TrEMBL record:
Biochemical pathway: Porphyrin-containing compound metabolism; protoporphyrin-IX biosynthesis; protoporphyrin-IX from protoporphyrinogen-IX: step 1/1
Subcellular location, record wording: Mitochondrion inner membrane
Cofactor(s) the protein needs: FAD
Coiled-coil annotated spans: none
Entry GO CC: mitochondrial inner membrane
Residue ranges of domain Amine oxidase in the record: 21-520
Protein name: Protoporphyrinogen oxidase
Keywords, sorted A to Z: FAD, Flavoprotein, Heme biosynthesis, Oxidoreductase, Porphyrin biosynthesis
Gene Ontology biological-process entries: protoporphyrinogen IX biosynthetic process
SUPFAM superfamilies: FAD-linked reductases, C-terminal domain, FAD/NAD(P)-binding domain
Cofactor binding: number and manner: Binds 1 FAD per subunit.
Protein species of origin: Heterostelium pallidum (strain ATCC 26659 / Pp 5 / PN500)
Reaction catalysis annotation: protoporphyrinogen IX + 3 O2 = protoporphyrin IX + 3 H2O2
Amino acid sequence: MSSSILTQGGKRVAVLGGGVSGLTAYHYLTKRVGLAAQLRAKQNEDDMLKIDLFESSPRTGGRIETEVWEKSVIERGPRSIRVAGHGIHTLDLVAELRLENQILFACKKAKTRYMLIDGKVQPLPSSFLNAVRFGFSNGLVYPILSEIFRSRSKEEDESIQSFFSRRLGENAASMFVEPVCLGIHGGDYTRLSIKSCFPSLYELERESGSLILGSLLAKKKQEAESLEKTALSLDHDSVRRVKSMLNKDNDSTRIFSFKDGGLQMLTDKLTKSIPERKLYMNTHIQSIERSDKNGTPVYRLVDSHGNEHEYDTVVSTVPLHQWASKKPLGSFDSELAALCSKMEYSNIAVVNLVYDSTPVRARVSGLGFGYLVASREGLPVLGVAVDSNTFPESAGMGNGGARSIITVMIGGNSGISQRNPQWQDVINMKKSTLIDIAIKHVEQYLGLNEAQTRPIHTAATIYHNAIPHYSVGHQALCKQIEQHLQDKYKGTLQLGGNHMIGVGVNDSIYNSKSIAQKVINRIFNNNNKDNVHYRTDIVK
Ligand SMILES: Cc1cc2nc3c(=O)[nH]c(=O)nc-3n(C[C@H](O)[C@H](O)[C@H](O)COP(=O)(O)OP(=O)(O)OC[C@H]3O[C@@H](n4cnc5c(N)ncnc54)[C@H](O)[C@@H]3O)c2cc1C
Ligand SMILES: C=Cc1c2[nH]c(c1C)Cc1[nH]c(c(CCC(=O)O)c1C)Cc1[nH]c(c(C)c1CCC(=O)O)Cc1[nH]c(c(C)c1C=C)C2
């Protein structure tokens, strides 16, 4: 092989973490991207790239964890994936894994999200105009009008609360912006970054000089563009394939899961394609050291069994806090550790309740996807998802098809406690206590009484550092981390996961796909970095 194609070394890659990020990184390093590069270099798979994946726990999937109980699909972590934005890449991966026939799009009624306002569950206004009709006019009219004629925002980053309060009034912001921040980030909207959490809104306003004007003018344009624009980084075959999966329904608000096995179908399928000798399960990477061998960097990994492993490139998808100061991986690079220590998180407890009762089914059927609870309500609950509304096919039949699956989220970022005395620090709570809180909440706000029913199955999962908290200044922090990694490790150390470009499954997948491309480009010294088209005819 000519050295111009393959830089010296660089062909041993370790992937840390067997969640969707790590599994996706492994997939693209060894399939599409990696394989295409090897074919170009006329190398066969075995003696070229050595890629191993290390997973601490006995299972893969990470925060994606689906329990199937008596045919009821119970999502302990994420429950749905959106089509919009990076979802196109997820659908492309689904097609590549031959899972397209397993896709389950959400029921139309799940398009509506609700919120608990003054003790009553009401639909979340899907547009600001609805908000005015909805009776927030007392706090909205002046801020909206003044905002339309306001000069272009000069601020750099700012909190979501200040961004929206200035434009819509504090009342509207606390009523329906704050709950959305709870429902995605489990976050504190007084400290969440508008630039990182709602980048398109932030850019729209800067481009058009006004949030309302910009969103009204750009809405149609955005919808039409979104598929094509995102699809630009997919080759034509992929775009065609994804479009056929969407059956010409370009409704960008759609969300999906998978038949029978929920979201874990995706991570299980990715796992199945990893050769056993390349997958180190129950293997926690405890420390990493770096040395130079004849001018080539070598990473020495020590695992929880005391074994040592050598690699030229490390793609870490473990949560960023593991690289922070005072953590085992933090001793690898103190400057990196100091940066990673600045990343905050939200802790979330997820309580799944399965009911087998006609009254409950009747009570929840009108709640769509579920509802969010603003801090001002002073309740311990962040939101309630009615999964049996969103994916009725996955509810399981039970006695005569009256199964309901309800998921209650509790906790969130500690900053919420400033506004909600009922905020719960879920990390130190017993699961039985969390289940009691969830059942009491559902009974009270769905108007159930104990006589009517009790759940036939419950599950509680406590996620510590569940979701990265994109605080004001988050984007600048990520740029500092990326710059440090590039300057010091020249692409041989990559940090993937959902700490940077978005907290969702799609963002995790997209991040891993772009990291795999960067790693392969570096190994094969491939200069056409941006317009690399993934061939699809080589996918096994
Ligand atoms: C409650 C909740 C609800 C959510 N809802 C949604 C949703 O509806 N839609 C959506 O798109 N997203 C949702 N998300 C976000 C989604 O779960 C994440 O974006 C995604 O799962 C992140 O995957 P990951 O692989 O980056 O990280 P993880 O899933 O955390 O995987 C990291 C893996 O690394 C392993 N690991 C850790 N340390 C080491 C080590 N030192 N050595 C080896 N292995 C290690 C862990 O065991 C784990 O398996 C939700 C998240 C939570 C917590
Ligand atoms: C109430 C708590 C939470 C619920 N889900 C999450 C929390 C903290 C976590 C979460 N939910 C979504 C994502 C992915 C975001 C993305 O960028 O794709 C994460 C990390 C999906 C989501 N959930 C809601 C919205 C508006 C979105 C965005 C994508 C979509 O439209 O699906 C709102 C919402 N979350 C929960 C409920 C009950 C709810 C609305 C009623 C649960």
